[in-house]
Structures are given as structure tokens and as C-alpha cells.
Amino acid sequence: MAAKYEERAKTQGITLALTLRPSLGAVKGDERRLRQALEHVVDNAVRFVPTGGRVLIHGEGTHKTVRIVVSDDGPGIDSKMQVRLFDSFARFGRNNEGQASGLGLPLVRQFIEAHGGTVRLVSEPGQGTIVTLDLPRGD
Q1: pLDDT tens, the chain, 139 aa long
Q2: Phi and psi at residue 109, to the nearest 5°
Q3: Domain covering 3-136 assigned CATH 3.30.565.10 in the classification
Q4: Residue 25 and residue 94: Cα distance in Å, rounded?
Q5: Which of 12, 93, 98, 133 is buried deepest, with most CB atoms within 10 A?
Q6: Using CA atoms in the order 96, 48, 15, 73, what is the torsion angle rounded to 10 degrees?
Q7: pTM for the whole structure
């Protein structure tokens, strides 16, 4: 999955690092929807990080859960915007390339929660953003 973004990151002068612990394992569920959720989070990070920035993808697990963390050192998100990020009716501005944000994060939350998981976002203006996806392993 990260390979999909390597060329784009390189072209944009962004460091993309992937760390998958052996404990990551697998999750049972709708592979397509889970992939879409993860790809959207990574896509956002790569899209909004400026030249020279970094995006880190870290995956680990326990016997009950899988955790995937996508962090970046981009511009960060102010608290007023964070409140609205998962609202499917909210509309936002555009990034540096003029690309509009849309329904991505509300769908990420919907797909992850449909699998019994959770999505958390922590961000501070000027400090970057961390998105954590926690999913149960399933039976």
C-alpha cells in the first residue's frame, strides 16, 4: 500500500517511512473498505505535507487488536477545524495545489467503525497530525 505513494512522495520531496511490526498480523473484514480507509489517511498526509516533510506509517498489534498510526510533520489542523473533520456535511478549503477536501475522513470513520474499530486524530497547528486506526482482529 505504501508503495502506491512512494513515487509521489519522492517527487514532492517528502520522506515516506513504513514500519510494520511482526505483531501487526491481519484483520478480518472488508479488505476493500479497510484499504480505502487507510489509503485516504495516507493520501491526506502526503497531500498536505510540504516539500521536505515526512509521513510515517506504523503498524503493530496485540492478540486482540491492530493499530495503524499515520503521522506527519505538516501544517497541523486547528481545533475548530478538527471538530468538523469527521462531519460528512462540512466543506473545507483547498490545499496548496488547489485540491478540495471532501468526504474522505467521514468515510474513513464509517468504514473503521463498521469493523468495530475507532479513529482518533491529534493535531496541533505547526506541529503536524497523527491519525490512529484501531481495529479488532475479529474471530
Answers
A1: 677 888 889 999 999 999 999 999 989 999 999 999 999 999 999 999 999 999 999 999 999 999 999 999 999 999 888 888 887 665 555 444 444 445 588 999 999 999 999 999 999 999 999 999 999 987 6
A2: -60, -45
A3: yes
A4: 36
A5: 133
A6: 120
A7: 0.87
